[in-house]
Amino acid sequence: MKQKLKQYLFGVMGKDPEAIIVSFATGDPAAVERMYEEVRGLEPARRHFLVKAEELAPGSAFQLYRQLRERFKANRIGLAPVLFTDDARYRPLRLAAFLLAPRKILAYNKRFERHHLRLSTAIASFLFLRGVSLDRIFLRPKWLAPWKRDRSVYPGEIQEYEGRALGWRPQIAVLSPYFPYPLSHGGAVRIFHLLREMSQQFDIWLLAFQDRETAEDLAPVLELCARVLLVGKPRYREPRWSTLLPPEVHEFDSPAMHTALERVRKEYRIDAVQVEYTALAPYGGDVLVEHDVTFELYRQVWKRKRTLSTFWDYWRWRRFETEWVKRYRRVVAMSEQDRALLGSPNVTVVPNGVDLYRFWPEMERFGQQLLFIGSFRHFPNIVAFRFFVEQVWPLLRDGWPDLRVMVVAGPDPLLYWREYTGLLALPCEKRIEVRGFVKDVRPLYVEANLVLAPTLVSAGTNLKVLEAMAMERAVVSTPSGCQGLGLGHGLNVWIADSAEDFAVGVATLLGDEALRKRIATAGRVHVEQNFDWKQVGASQQAVLDKLIEADRISVRRAVGDDLERIFAIQATAPEASQWHADDYLAFNTHVAVVGGSIVGFLVSRQVADGEREILNVAVDPAYRRRGVARQLIREEMGRWPGTHFLEVRESNAAARRLYASLGFEQVGERPSYYENPDETGIVMRIFS
Questions:
Q1: Which of 398, 530, 623, 687 fits a 20 to 30 Å CA distance from 296?
Q2: How far is CA 331 from CA 284, 357, 461, 532, in A?
Q3: Would you state the pLDDT for residue 1?
Q4: What φ, ψ does residue 209 adopt, rounded to 5°?
Q5: What pLDDT digit, counting tens, does each position of 544-596 carry?
Q6: What is the pLDDT of residues 198-246, one digit of tens each?
């Protein structure tokens, strides 16, 4: 009965009661075909139609709509799949589809995710059309929708691995956003080689976010580090636009990593903490390594694509980065250009480097082989690849039929390609080969005749350019690709400002062997003089040495002139015993000195043969948690071996943890031992 009524009603309206599906060809033909076939598979029982722009008379969106309405006037449209891309040529047809079937649009994006556009999900539909992935269109900020369940996930497990034996060298903690092995991208190369150089002088604690490290990956780093602590990276589930801080900062804000770093600082006498990359700056430390000036990178993106979202990214990165650069005692930049951009007096240049022994030159082979190396996990490399393939390659392809291009795109290139571009597949060119992670790129440099650095947006310096020059291979680069390296056009590199200039550079160097060889040889000389990892490592060590020297704690016997400073420190420590200043010299009082200033003191006395009591310990608040109290107590036990006792307020949890970490054990309690306020004293003892 229902079916008959349906047929009758639609018959009165002059329409077929069975709904049809009309797909719209609003993008690349191959993508449209894939969409059409997928929809046919989802709805095999219905009749399907595919509308192509060339089948309709040219006109405005409304004129196209009138043609479509006439064409399908006898049909009821049940679904209207539409492909949404950045191609403006298909915009009128997309608008016509909306006019024809406004409540039936099934939108496909470049990733081939699909979403029904409905008023009931207006925000999600808008975000989907703006290019936000299906996985994130229903995310809402916590401050806007606190009831949402799909919230960020923070792995809590901390995996700790023991490396080489601890010595008596200064101890450095290095915090990294990823484990620096294998050497799959420039950041990993820098961190690994500087760990190798630093390990000759320091004991290193490496704290990193884990990915898919294997035992084989861990081994080379454990040879350099005393300990390695790995923490899972958070799964950040807030909209990227919704916070004042850049989203990358939240993506690495892990409670487990905070805990790991805090534990390392408490349990070991860490002399300095070095933080790699700006996004990790809020963890705090002594040295911040700016692998690139991130706000400058986003400024270049905004300059190329002036939208509200690109300006928002640039503005918040600039605000965040300039603020945190000022908070660190020392900031490391990759070049003088980066130091000028940061504009802060605490910035020191420690450039990138290259392994001159691994990347040793070999004779160039005969051929026309181009090489581009750039991990797609760093989006400027994707921009560079698209620039070359879409703008430079067409200018070279026909005139150089034997030309071949090798692209090394790092781990999971298709994953990062889809995430950044929204395109399902990489460009398909018979003479362009794209590889993923290559464990040893040196053989590829040997086979190459020219190395490409077609970077359009960049900050920091390009390690791959240094490797190419070390291998005595001429480089064709954009200004961004070789910035900060002190190179000169026609001297040790070929610099091109546009796609046309880039193609001319490739053609010129391929056609002029003498010029190519002269530039390549000069490039090797340049890196030998300026970018050997041993030289770079010495600069990095000098930065840490100065900090440690400034923080070096010396302990000496107190004298009368010290009493005023001792009394001032005591006044800042209400948890310590409050003595009259003159009483200190009646006992064995020692002071800790940093940079010529007294920053802490310890008082003790002998109570029996081989037995002493520590009467009072206090540290200036500005120097707490920097090993001052630990140094005072260690030297106290070293001066007088035997048994040491002390009392500590029951509520002073931080001091009790410190004493326990040094080996003190609780052996008793003394009720009402302390005054102001009245409090129990915990008696602790150690045999030394």
A1: 530
A2: 12, 29, 16, 21
A3: 55
A4: -85, 130
A5: 988 887 778 889 999 999 999 998 998 888 877 778 777 888 899 999 998 88
A6: 999 999 999 999 987 777 889 999 999 999 999 999 999 999 999 999 9
DSSP assignment of 600-632 equals EEEEEEEEETTEEEEEEEEE-GGGTTTTHHHHH
Given this model, what pLDDT does residue 619 score? 93
pLDDT of residue 133: 85
Whole-angstrom distance, CA of residue 458 vs CA of residue 237: 27
For residues 293 and 300, give the distance between their C-alpha atoms in angstroms, rounded to a whole number: 11
Structure confidence at residue 2 (pLDDT) = 56
Residue 130 has pLDDT above 90, yes or no: no
The alpha-carbon radius of gyration of the chain (Å, integer) is 33
User: Does residue 322 fall inside a structural domain?
Assistant: yes
Do 408 and 259 reside in the same domain of the chain? no
CATH code of the domain covering residue 14: 3.40.50
pLDDT at 424 over 90: no
Q: Are residues 435 and 474 in the same domain?
A: yes
Which range marks the domain in which residue 662 is found? 552-687
User: Is residue 383 domain-shared with residue 527, that is, in the same domain?
Assistant: yes
> Looking up tokens 């993008």, which residue turns up?
27
Tell whether the model's pLDDT for residue 306 goes beyond 70.
yes
Q: Are 422 and 524 within one domain?
A: yes
- 443: preceding bond cis by omega (within 30 degrees): no
The 3-state DSSP class for residue 550 equals helix
E-state strands within 43-189: 48-52, 77-83, 105-108, 114-116, 158-162, 171-176
Q: How far apart are CA 56 and CA 67, in angstroms?
A: 7
> Which residues, other chains included, contact 59 with Cβ-Cβ below 8 Å and sequence gap of 6+?
67, 92
Cis peptide leading into residue 182 (ω within 30°) = yes
Nearest to 613 by CA among 683, 557, 546, 559: 683
Residue-level pLDDT at 7 = 56
Which amino acid does the sequence have at 32?
Answer: V
CA-CA-CA-CA torsion sign (84, 87, 88, 90): negative
Q: Tokens 């995310």 label which residue?
A: 139
The CATH number of residue 373's host domain is: 3.40.50.2000
Joined tokens for residue 671: 């009720």
For residue 215, the surrounding DSSP H or E stretch is helix 215-222
Strand partners, 681: 649, 670
Residues with active-site annotation: 647, 659
Number of CB atoms found within 10 A of residue 628's CB: 24
* Residue 190 falls inside a structural domain: yes
| Per-residue confidence (pLDDT) for residue 373, from 0 to 100 | 95
SS3 115: strand
Angle at 240 between CA 236 and CA 245, to 5 degrees: 90
What is the Cα–Cα distance from 396 to 370, expressed in whole angstroms? 12
